[in-house]
Amino acid sequence: MYLSSVLLLPLPPCYHGNVVISEVPAVATLKKEPKTFAFDHCFWSMEDSNVKFANQEIVFNCLGKDILERAFEGYNACILAYGQTGSGKSYSMMGTNEQKGIIPRLCDALFDQIKEKEANDLGFKVEVSYMEIYNEKVRDLLDPKGRHNLRVREHNILGPYVDDLSTLAVSAFQDINTLMSEGNKSRTVAATNMNSESSRSHAVFSIIVTQTLSDLQTGVS
Ligand SMILES: Nc1ncnc2c1ncn2[C@@H]1O[C@H](COP(=O)(O)OP(=O)(O)OP(=O)(O)O)[C@@H](O)[C@H]1O
Ligand SMILES: [Mg+2]
Questions:
Q1: What are the pLDDT digits (tens) for 70-109?
Q2: DSSP string, 7-30
Q3: Is the overall model pTM greater than 0.90, yes or no?
Q4: What are the sequence ranges of the domains in the chain?
Q5: Superfamily of domain 118-221
Q6: SMART domains under this entry (predicted)?
């Protein structure tokens, strides 16, 4: 089963705040015709002195925490950031060193929870993969020599997957951060009129958490 959150960023933050759209139905008027759409939260982040300003922590508490809880329950979970160039997708997902985005916060919380939950009979393994899709070609961002294109295949039970994509084991957010920074260096980036460092590709960062419960008496896991 897949759970997802969509982080929809309609206009660059200099014009609007960030909007998260997912579950509860609402009605809006657009070019005279009423449209029905759904959203759980609406964030505004233009001026940090304003009381309604939503910082990265507020966005994470509304979005990332639940996703992490569901992941520990065994569900596949996905956050998709969607919006035009310069609207704040990279900022919301990655952020800066001072204003960490959803991914670093999620990873920090993930490793904190693993530390809390780990026991003699319960172990965790965390692996990551990172790829970009650009001009319909898929590239492995964690493979320093991975300039070649990877193939998307279909598994008869698990569905589509990227053949030969590297998955690397990590034990702390610092490991993930180093891998992502290396990966980001290989991302296709260019200037647009609205963003001097625009990510021209789609990037998919996956975290695979495996929980192993063992019976200490029989050794069965
Ligand atoms: N909520 C925010 N608060 C402060 N600065 C922001 C916010 N959102 C975005 N920015 C800044 O706006 C600029 C553009 O944002 P960003 O690079 O995240 O856009 P993007 O949606 O990833 O665009 P592209 O599709 O071109 O990659 C960046 O300099 C970023 O730091
Ligand atoms: Mg970007």
A1: 999 999 989 999 988 888 998 999 899 899 999 999 999 9
A2: EEE-S-TTTS--EEE-SSEEEEEE
A3: no
A4: 1-100, 118-221
A5: Kinesin motor domain (3.40.850.10)
A6: KISc
